[in-house]
Amino acid sequence: MAEPVVATYSIVACDLEAGQWGVATQSKFLAVGSLVPWAEAEVGAVATQAWANPRYGPDGLALLRQGLSAQEVVERLTSADEGREHRQLGVVDARGEGATFTGSQCYDWAGGLAGPGFAVQGNILVSGETVDALATTFEGSAGKPLAERLLACLAAAQAAGGDSRGQQSAALLVVDRGGGYGGMTDVAVDLRVDDHERPIPELERLYGLHQAIFGKTPPEQWIEVDDELAAELRERLGRLGYDGELESAFTRWAGNENLEERVKGVARIDPVVLEELRSR
């Protein structure tokens, strides 16, 4: 059975200091996030595209788990694949080394670049400027959260021309050991826009919602709940139908609004949560 064609651009990258690996991608293809991005915390990240071989994702992560470098993974996967000249692949390993591969039969424009902490690639692009924009944006955004850097890369790549066929879907995947919901998962961010006229702005919008619910405000920025603020909380919660003891009412409201990850009792309050309650 033939694999689906995924003409797209993508970046696989990591932030070793933060312990994060991730992939961001955009394509004129339905639900690109279901096929292209693969990542495992403290192991690495993989993007498989062009006449995509979906096995490159799990097989690539398995090789990275064994300690192979990004370049070794690329060589191992492509050498065993008779269809390699139609494939495109990007890999970043646990040490932050990047490697990319573009088969000779990928449709123009097609190519990739790799550097410390990243690999970028694309096919059926307007020009190589799209890939250049992915690389330069990533290199110029050090110090910012990885997810935000990856989103900025997609936006810059689209502004540089993007996929010559247009836009349809986009995805963002970031992994971090214990960095997901309740510290019980390694998936810190997993957002997908499957079909949209402007998928990158929509992905940015979803990321904003994600941060509002799951983001972390530094503890020193939390607000002490004094008598005056406690009275305000009771009054606002009461108007919303949450009566009774303050902590119980506050916890019930926060859970109903999917803000439980930002609540730790009522002695102090996350300013994001307070702003949300005041907006109701």
Description:
The chain is α+β, with helices and mostly antiparallel strands. It has two domains: about 5-215, 4-Layer Sandwich (Glutamine Phosphoribosylpyrophosphate, subunit 1, domain 1), CATH 3.60.20.10; about 220-280, no CATH class. Helix content is about 35%, strand content about 25%. The protein has helices at about 55-65, 70-80, 130-140, 145-160, 200-215, 225-240, 245-255, 270-280; strands at about 5, 10-15, 20-25, 35-40, 45-50, 85-95, 100, 110-115, 120, 170-175, 185-195, 225, 270. The protein has a six-stranded antiparallel beta sheet, covered by helices on one side. Strands 1, 4, 5, 6 and 7 form a five-stranded antiparallel beta sheet that branches. Strand 8 (about 110-115) and strand 9 form a beta hairpin. Helix 1 (about 55-65) crosses helix 2 and helix 6 crosses helix 7. It is elongated, with a radius of gyration of 21 Å. The model has no long low-confidence stretch (mean pLDDT about 95).
